[in-house]
Here is the input.
Amino acid sequence: MPLTVLVPGNILQVKFFAYMDPQLGINVVHYKVLSTIGSPTSATVAENLETIQVAAYPPLMANAAATDGVSCQNLSVLPLEEPQLSIAVPTGGSVVGAPMPGQVSGIITKRTGLTGRANRGRMYIPFPGQGDSTSSSEPQPSPSYVTRLNALISLLFGAPIVISTGGDGCTIQPGIYHRATGTFTNGAGGTARSKWATQRRRGDYGRPNVPN
Here is the structure.
């Protein structure tokens, strides 16, 4: 069955995947379609955003980890269509040396310019390397790592993103999707935190979570 063509106002749920044996790391970002040209679909968005993924994620990951593609699902179509997966070309992390424990993550706060917990969100960036952690008694991300986190914010949660494949394309706005009300608040960038966070389900002793 052909995919629904995107139209302005559609809300997209995008997942960015990374993998370090035996755990999968997933970051979720929501986007709103602002405009379209031709006949773009959720598959068009997934393939385009993988190009951004392979530029932004490897500099934040140990070389034992790799990107594992992008999925995009149109939440505005009922019944929901299956998420569309990019044709993943794994790109290894570029931080040389030992990885940090699997549960350790960088952390980004997504912002909208409005107050309240409902108007912000968090992303736990997977699989950093030990070379990006300070050697103090309370290890923290290095200034260089925080700079690279800010680059990721600019690419994924900053200005609207232009998607284009052949004659099909769209412009998508990052933001916060409020499931309870079905509303969307435009994003206004984010903050890279100078501390490590924990995602226990990615831990070395957690249940393995391997790509399908």
